Amino acid sequence: MFRKIKRIFNRSSKEMSSLQEMQKILSNGGVLLDVRSNQEYEEGHLPSAICLPVYHLKTKIGEVVPNKQTTIVVYCSSGSRSKQAKMQLEQMGYQKVYNLNGGLNSIS
């Protein structure tokens, strides 16, 4: 029962708790954004991820994801920067933004 409640909570707050959820979104045309630094990205990243550091998000997102209806999954190392990125994207009008809960640390 607790898992079911956790799953519902994570969905409602647009937090992703599993790679399976992320893969489903990506297979339906979603975009995966790695919001870590370029150096961190080069050291290793998830397949198909686009590097867009959180500090460049406001100026570069329109080039990377011009359609604000596109579903976006953001991630970083721990989930902190990606949570910030998610909030920024939502403030800019992107409506379908998900944060990979716990970041890369949760899946390694």
Structure description:
- With 108 residues, this protein is an alpha/beta fold.
- It has one domain: Rhodanese-like domain (Oxidized Rhodanese, domain 1), CATH 3.40.250.10.
- It has 5 helices and 5 strands; from the N terminus they run H-E-H-E-H-E-H-E-H-E.
- Strand 2, helix 3 (38-43) and strand 3 (50-51) form a beta-alpha-beta unit.
- Mean pLDDT is 86; it is low at 1-12.
Could you name the CATH class?
Alpha Beta
Low-confidence stretches: 1-12
Give Rg in angstroms.
13 Å
Gap between N and C termini: 26 Å
Give the domain tally: 1
Entry summary:
The protein is an alpha/beta fold and 108 residues long. 43% of the residues lie in helices and 15% in strands.
Task: Name its key features.
single chain; about 110 residues; alpha/beta; Oxidized Rhodanese, domain 1; 5-stranded parallel sheet; 5 helices; globular
List the helices and strands and how they pair.
Layout: H1 2-12, E1 15-16, H2 19-27, E2 31-34, H3 38-43, E3 50-51, H4 57-64, E4 72-75, H5 80-91, E5 97-100
Parallel strand pairs: 1-5, 2-3, 2-4, 4-5
